[in-house]
Specification:
Helices cover 89% and strands 0% of the residues. The protein contains 4 helices and no strands.
Length: 126
């Protein structure tokens, strides 16, 4: 392995550490991110409990991953808007509201996916 390969690996690892720092920052500072994290842990526990199928696992994992990704993007947009202007501006409000709307749409979709997947398992109890 030459020094060029080592440098590439270091740059890649460094970029992963930046990404991890961003996720950690959001988890520590954003109430909604913590809500999604706790909800995800509950859903994963239920998925193990009910022994859901591989296909159902795929839907659950994409729902969770997509939710985290959108929440991170929403947080990033909020931070950038706050950095650009400290005073009220209608476009800044629109940017924040639109990003929050994207999170809301995906959250509604994940709720529907969860109902479709878990309802048959829950109904078996009754």
């Amino acid at each position: 392995m030459d020094s060029h390969d080592k440098k590439k690996r270091f740059v890649l690892l460094r970029s992963f550490s930046f990404a991890a720092a961003g996720i950690l920052t959001a988890a520590q500072n954003e109430r909604n991110m913590r809500f999604h994290l706790i909800s995800s842990l509950i859903v994963i526990a239920l998925s193990f409990y009910f022994s859901i199928s591989k296909l159902e696992w795929l839907f659950i994992l994409f729902a969770i991953g997509g939710m985290f990704a959108l929440e991170l993007m929403n947080t990033a947009i909020e931070r950038v808007v706050d950095l650009v202007t400290a005073e009220y501006h209608p476009l800044a409000k629109q940017a924040k509201d639109i990003a929050a709307g994207a999170v809301f749409v995906y959250a509604a979709l994940t709720l529907i996916v969860g109902i479709i997947i878990f309802m048959p398992y829950v109904l078996k109890w009754f």
